[in-house]
Amino acid sequence: MPSHHSARSRRATERKGDVRERAILDTCEALLAQKGYDAMTVGDIAQGAGITRGALYFYFGSKQEVVTALVARTVEHLWERSRATAQTDESRRAIAAAMQRTVELWSEHGLVMRTAIDLSLTVPEIGELWSHTADLFITAITAVLERAGVAAGTGPEQASAMARALCWMIERTFYHASQESREELQKASSTCEHIWLTSAGLIT
Fold first, then answer.
1. Are 140 and 86 in contact (CB under 8 A)?
2. Half-sphere CA count of 44, side-chain side, radius 13 A
């Protein structure tokens, strides 16, 4: 019996830990909006999450680690969406769905996405996360282009190279539009979608 009890209490502890970790990351996201990355401190995050600094250090070693975990949590949604896009059979529908999901993510978490991009050059862990995210998105775009009839390969007019350019175009376009408004994001999405469809030879 004792082992059963300890397993159950361990599960309960993990759940409590998950809740606390979520509170830390939610607070970090709110503080990014209020103060920005540079001005925000570990003390601010702990206070906002309703825990001591010591308790926060049980989960994360620094402010940078908290932000990295927040970026990871946010881009996980993008990874899921990229996989779903790559698996959609009908190219036009895949592109429309991918762009709509990208709008939703940037609308909900634009600040985290911009922070990730800003820190990706100076924080190696965030740089790796962002690079991995881009690679997944590029793979999904490549699959859609190839299904639409674009030749596979890395040549300038082939799917892989075109997908890479489309990915970074979408990233930069959404980076700027997300600082404006939801309406601007929607416009940016429509433009990127048009360019993607044109590149895929689905519209002329």
1. yes
2. 18
For the stretch 30-52, pLDDT in tens is 999 999 999 999 999 999 999 99
pLDDT digits (tens, 9 = 90+) for 48-104: 999 999 999 999 999 999 999 999 999 887 777 777 776 777 889 889 988 988 999
Question: What is the distance, to the nearest Å, from the Cα of residue 157 to the centroid of all Cα atoms in its chain?
Answer: 28
Burial of residue 6 (CB within 10 Å: 0-12, 13-18, 19+) is exposed
Sequence-ordered list of residues with C-beta below 8 angstroms from that of 53, at least 6 positions apart, any chain: 42, 43, 46
Cα torsion through 146, 81, 106, 154, rounded to 10: -30
Residue whose pair of structure tokens reads 């040549």 in the numeric block: 155
